[in-house]
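worker-03 picked up job from queue 'complexes'. Input manifest follows; three sequence lines, order preserved.
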Amino acid sequence: MSVAHMSEHEREEAETREQRALGFWLYLMGDAVIFALLFATYAIMIPGTAGGPTGKDLFDLNNAALETVLLLVSSTTFGFASLSVRTGNRSAVIGWLAVTFLLGAGFVFLEVREFAGMIAKGAGPDRSGFLSAFFTLVGTHGVHVTMGLLWILILSAQVMLKGLTAPVASRLYRLGLFWHFLDIAWVGIFSIVYLPGLL
Amino acid sequence: MFGKLTIEALPLYSAIAAGGAAVTVGGALLVAIVLTWLKAWKYLWTDWLTSVDHKRIGIMYIVLALIMLLRGFVDAIMMRAQQAMALNAGGYLPPEHFDQIFSSHGTIMIFFMAMPFMTGLINLIMPLQIGTRDVAFPWLNAVSLWLSAAGAGLVMVSLVIGKFSTAGWTGYPPYSGIEYNPGVGVDYWIWAILISGVGSTMSGINFVVTILKRRAPGMTLMRMTPFTWTALCASVLMAFAFPAITVACGLLALDRLAGMHFFTNAHGGNMMNYANLFWIWGHPEVYILILPAFGIFSEVVATFSRKRLFGYESLVYATAAIAILSFTVWLHHFFTMGSSANVNAFFGVTTMIIAVPTGVKVFNWLLTMYRGRIDFHPSMMWSIGFIVTFVIGGMTGVLLAIPPADFLMHNTTFLVAHFHNMIIPGVLFGYLAGYMFWFPKAFGFELNRGWGLASFWCWLIGFYLAFMPLYLLGLKGMPRRMETYNDPTWQPYLMVAALGAVVVLCGIASMVMQLYVSIRDRKLTADRTGDPFDGRTLEWSTSSPPPPYNFAVIPTVGDREPFLEAKKNGTAYRRPASYAPIRIPSNTPAGVILGGFAFVLGFAIVWHIWWLVIVSAIVMFITVIARSSDDNAEFTLSAGEVKRMEDERFRELGGRA
Amino acid sequence: MKLRGINWRGAMLVAGMALLTGACDLKRAAVLDPKGPIALAERDLLFDAFSVMMIVIVPVIILTLWFAWRYRASNTSAQYAPNWANSVKIDAFVWSIPAIIVIALGVLLWRSTYKLDPYRPIENAGPAIEVQVVAQDWKWLFIYPEQGIAVVNQLAFPAGRPVSLRITSDTVMNSFYVPQLAGQIYAMAGMQTRLQLLADQPGKFVGRNSQYSGGGYSQQHFEVVSLTQGDFDAWVAKAKQAPGRLDAQTYPAQAAKSRAVPITYYSAVEPGLYDQIIAKYRHSGHAHTQGQGSAVPARR
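worker-03 finished. Artifact:
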């Protein structure tokens, strides 16, 4: 195998990674359309409480603020993991991914606890259109975070087994995009759902 | 154990329904028997079902589309027959059955005929036209195909187990909600659309990345073929519009499964939101379907007029303008919902603005024919038939875009005639032109011209006979979707429309004959050069069918019609000094496994078989993880093998090289 | 004049007669034969837009066929310009012609959409008669609040007097459609839409639901009758004699699913019944209902 061919091979690999990055961006934009429509649906359905509880009766700003902190910090720790990928520090990558996972899991725990509390109070998603929209919007984000957590586990295993190879690093890059995207979506939820619900 | 599924689900309630089920099961069995008899299962599995080659995936998409075209047409002719007979409760179908038929007809024709046909043609041709070896994400492409097939499978299985939706192809709540529709029909509809919709979104992303990142050197955006341009615009729309129908159907599913209140009458639901979500997808969808057809017409008209396409830049800008504007007009599907005059007028005007770039395109095709040398190949006939008929549909569309005029004609058969006037001569004629144009590229022999022309004339005349009466009936105030009626003056028109459906049937029969005759005579009409129509663009520079790697050496492009230029300059068919090894993605069963379990998942949700939902979801998840963790999904074709295949190609070419 | 056994003269005669009957039939087509100012204005709009578009549609069709014939491959005498693919002049022309037509139609559209807004009362025609319309499975209930009567599947009113309709649904989405008088608008539960109509002369018309709503949909039509003032008064008096009464107790039985329901009169209607039908969807279910609201319009 000639040297020239090797570089050709590498060029193809680099192109493939670039294509995957663009494809993933497009996926995220499509996901953003989903969130945008769920936000719009939520906004339309705020009055649809059908005589049931409103956001003011239900939302706990402390809980939402804590969730926000967990998710924002987890984005930062993921940033550290990405930096460690660049320096090729395998154990640091795994360490930062583990911290990110714990923060994300904490977020999911808080959200599930909030949901369970509301359902126990009789304010479940089948109570009113408003609550359907709330649970669906916030829940869709929560499902995304859960998927992200699974993804972190899988890629951690790959880092351990395969090392920071080019394909693994490129997967970590896309996971990073996904994780930061969820942060942005959450900022939208916090400012459109929780804040006005309390004002 | 089996959720809501009991023996009651078999369609023994009517002879016609049982007959439909028997034909479906019998057809599937027949195919299985023939495959076993031919000992073709292994070949089918290794060469086709597990293939990630864009050309094979494209062909499988088109096969799916043609099968579903037959099914959708059976629905159509049953409706025409019913309405022709249905004066004063005449006819042979009870309302519950008639309503399933119009729902499945629309659902199938849009989601499982037009979408796969379009995706198939783009898959087959676009990578060849931009001079690349495959799409950006080959195995994702296979997943898209099998998810579409899974959705189509759910619609087909509803014929045999349970019933299909009666809520029409748009599934408007609250009628489609659990309160008014407790059966499984709407669930079949929802999950067929959700599953295939994921596939379409991924196809859109795949094509956009392919076109933006994998063009041959020298092929700037403004040197892309018109078909590639329209494929790009349609793909962008697919990636960004399909999420809207995912949301619409997803929320409807939550209403039905989890007792939520997004679109219910009471409990704070808002059905108007559904109409908005559905048509935010639905209008771009029209352009997702028709833009690639426009692209095909552009290629066909230029090739068979033996002339450069007139006004390429105009055409490109018009395409892009249509794509962007298509997101701004959705409300015209429900002017009658009581929006204020401001809102209605705004959306009416945006709708009319789309007529401008569309009109420009029509003039461009016309001027491409002007001073040409027109060969009346069937593909060209589809194009001419399209232009003449499409302008009529465009005109009635502009009429419906005027809100007060829409108050008179909304929801009547005038509307039905209008959108069929766009979808049949616009979309379907385009795809059939593409099918007859690129068939030799895919299979290495031409389709019979005579039967092609017969098919064209039957479709064209059948279309006019079937839909002109519907325009008139709309003017007479006949609402759509009527299973019976009491106005005897409608009946003659409906009889003519039924006759039209019979003529279209002859058109379909001619297509079947064309395929049979062409396969029989394939030795006589073999395409040894790969360029049977004196083509202009890169797909014609390869052999027919092209080798797995498409191009042994990636071409360098310096013109909008690179292959025609190369033929003029004598640089076409020039052998390279040497060949390099080529890496090709390996086949994988992951796509077909995912599609299979997506089908099981959908079926299990429809029937509330929750353990099966969990099992199939886990299998799908593991399949995705396993395949996407695989770092060695490619194999290498050595330079020697490439040379051997190219040698063969040049032997076939003989003197030309 | 026989060719292969077909009597061409006879066939042409039959075809001609069919066309003639068809043309006569179409003259009476509901949309083309309006009987009131609203439907007339809507139809005229249709005709105007149609005529304007013919300016471009007809030439395009003729040119397509002519070019196809003239530049057929076998006609070697026709000019052949394989590389002629650009012309700034023609480009300007093909963009400007559709643009001009669309601008003209856009102005027409904008004005007419305001003028024919179905919420806008008919001007200069005297006081309107109010009718409340409820779409049900599968029939139409018309409540006359001023007269205190209700009718199923018949909408009667005096000719020459505007009729102001408030429309809702007690089931799935319907579309209230009277092509010869007013066009259509959706009927949706928990909401109210509006429509105005006026009949110039006494007469009988057909009204329908045009939005598919389930099994009985095809038979869900109603009679629309415009009467002289005297006949209308007699009609009201006759309805007042009917045995049935409509109130919160009898309403559910009346609203229950039924197909092909004959015209039925109710001599008395509980005041506010229509508002109750809307309100029951607004504040459904649970204890902390915040009092009875009035009808909430679909348009805010």
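worker-03 released lock.
The radius of gyration of chain B is 25 Å.
The longest helix of chain B spans residues 95-129.
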